Amino acid sequence: MAAAAAVASNCVLELKTDFFETSQLRVEKVLSTGGSSEVVLASSIQDLSRKRVVKKISLKEENLQDRELSAKEAKALFHREIEILRTLDHPNIIGGVNGVICPDYMALSMDFCPNGTLVTHLKKMTNGLIDRYFDGLVSGVCYIHSLRIVHGDIKLQNIFVNAKNKAVLADFGFSFKMPENISYVKTSGATMAYLSPEVLIKRSKVDPFKCDSYAVGVVLRCLVLKRRPGYCPDYLQEVRESPHICAMFRYFLEALLHRKPSRRATMAHVQTTLDEFIPEAYTEELSQNCRPQEEFNSTASPPRKKIRSQESAQSLPNIKQ
């Protein structure tokens, strides 16, 4: 392999041959396709139990034209994604990432999560599973935000479930790192159904971290209602009109789906609150369908009280570790 490859910057290899042939990988099946990319499951020819997920991004001229990118621009975006992923180390962020540029495509190789994405589990959601997956997603997003990294495309399809039944955030193709002295950008977000209201109305500048928060709220809405998002001008109103949502989830839906970014919770606030939540303390606020802005900016923690129920453990499927 060393003879066929030249090391490029940011830990990306450039190959003159096919990545799968050089790495002795066999494609088992196509997991998903979209636009100019394809995600496949591959296994080692020498050991079929060693599996990898590989995202192939075409460098063919017609595909680059569809994306309105030059080959140089596409490679720069690929380098940025690999560079970001290689700096991350968290149990709820996809790991084992390697990047390769071949003559006709780029390949991003990563760990295999055997239990699919949250789309696979949507119809089987219980409060215990929602609690588990939401907690993991919040932990992962809070981690990247602490490093000033914006994901930019949080959605059900980009959240995998690994062998330990943990939510794992992947696909950082739209991610970027915000400079320390910058708070707003011109645009943020990729998938229409998860875009925050300020992006949809094309405000000149948005807070991309609050856009990520809104997308996490849409994911929680999907888990609670057990259905994918459609076009909805006001997810928060949809939630308020839906009965039988437990107090904790309703609290976080209210906090994350607020149409005004200034009233929307940060991921740091959500993580702080998750394990210390007392439903009774917020009943009056929720009944008024409004949230005080200053609460989300406060560093004070609610009274400590774990609310993890026995259901959270009992409802998990029996997956071998």
UniProtKB/TrEMBL annotation:
Residues 288-321 are annotated as: Disordered. Pfam families: Pkinase. InterPro entries: Kinase-like_dom_sf, Prot_kinase_dom, Ser/Thr_kinase_AS. Signal peptide: none annotated. GO terms for molecular function: ATP binding; tau-protein kinase activity. Residues 25-278 form the Protein kinase domain. GO terms for cellular component: cytoplasm. Keywords: ATP-binding, Kinase, Nucleotide-binding, Transferase. Residues 288-301, 310-321 have a biased composition (Polar residues). CDD domains: PKc (cd00180). GO terms for biological process: intracellular signal transduction; microtubule cytoskeleton organization. PANTHER family: MAP/MICROTUBULE AFFINITY-REGULATING KINASE, SERINE_THREONINE-PROTEIN KINASE SIK3. This is CaMK family protein kinase.
